[in-house]
Amino acid sequence: MKKLYRSTLDRKITGLAGGIGDWLGVDATIVRIVLIASGVFSFGTTLLLYVIASILVPKAPFEVIPPPPPNGSYRYFG
């Protein structure tokens, strides 16, 4: 079973939407759109739940950053 963590790489505010996106296997942008729409239609209840979840859900212990592409694919201007 996969654990829910706040993302340290895909974050805009607290990383909760990025963590939920990783946990569900969907893009974090979709999670953010759903959270915003839900916040509008729930008169702020979703915002309260977001703040509570951001406090309770732990940060990811580590995230592997993919390696950069080989040296030949970078262009340096300067």
From TrEMBL:
Domain of life: Bacteria
Location of the Phage shock protein PspC N-terminal domain: 2-60
Membrane topology, as annotated: Single-pass membrane protein
Keywords: Cell membrane, Membrane, Transmembrane, Transmembrane helix
Transmembrane segments: 30-52
Pfam families: PspC
Any one annotated GO CC term: plasma membrane
Compartments reported by the entry: Cell membrane
InterPro entries in the cross-refs: Phageshock_PspC_N, PspC
Keyword Transmembrane helix: yes
Protein name: PspC domain-containing protein
